[in-house]
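Hey, can you fold this one?
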Amino acid sequence: DQHNKRWRYGLYLHAVLDTFSGCILWVQVWWMNSNPQLIFHYYLDMACKHQGIPLITQSDLGSENNAIANGHTLLHQWLDPGLVGVLQHQWMRGHANIKPEILWSKLQHFPKFVHNIAIVMDISSLTFHHLAIPLTQMNLNEWIYVHNTFRSRKDRKRVLPQGRLVHILNNPNCFMGACNFKVGVATSDLHFVEDLYAPKDHPVFELVPSWFEEEFNGHYLVLGSPPLTKASFWIMYHSLLHLFLTSPHQDEI
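Sure. Predicted structure:
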């Protein structure tokens, strides 16, 4: 599911959960979240990490999810020709995709989530993206780890297994006698669908344009390549922006 409420800052989020365990598989931040190649790339990263794919995927209606629907279906049909002609993706209409909406609600209360950011444009926007996206992703990864490893209080009304979510995800057979329906898939098969639906040379995978990246790295070296933290973010941002604006290559940029 997408989260576009940070569009004013040029930050767009995308998340996927395992519905059985409740485990967060990813929350990714980027300068867009509507590109099908980008979304399928997230899917492939998770498939490589877990060395398998789920039986079925589901999402809201939207063209950004087409590559997941098609690529996921193609992998299943590759492994089981009997599934040819059967879509292995469920399109959820209206407000039926509930779990991600709950996730976004929780994320709003995460203290490290980006707040009170001024709108920036052009060179300042690219500078902001180069700093804010990796830092925000690092903070999101910390939150995901806490969410997936925290043992919540028992709820008698809960039907699904209870415990640390990552344990339920990785060892479902230890909880209520559940079965693991993960479908193993070879790395070569993942590379095949990647070439079809998310080629590595697609420009959507560039954090910033290559011409800007080169200039940014030079300015960052001038500043001594200090580690970026929440406390130093705005100092670094304004220092880098000053170097860009006073650069002899400013007109070229």
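The two ends are 35 Å apart (CA to CA). Let me know if you want another pass with a different chain boundary.
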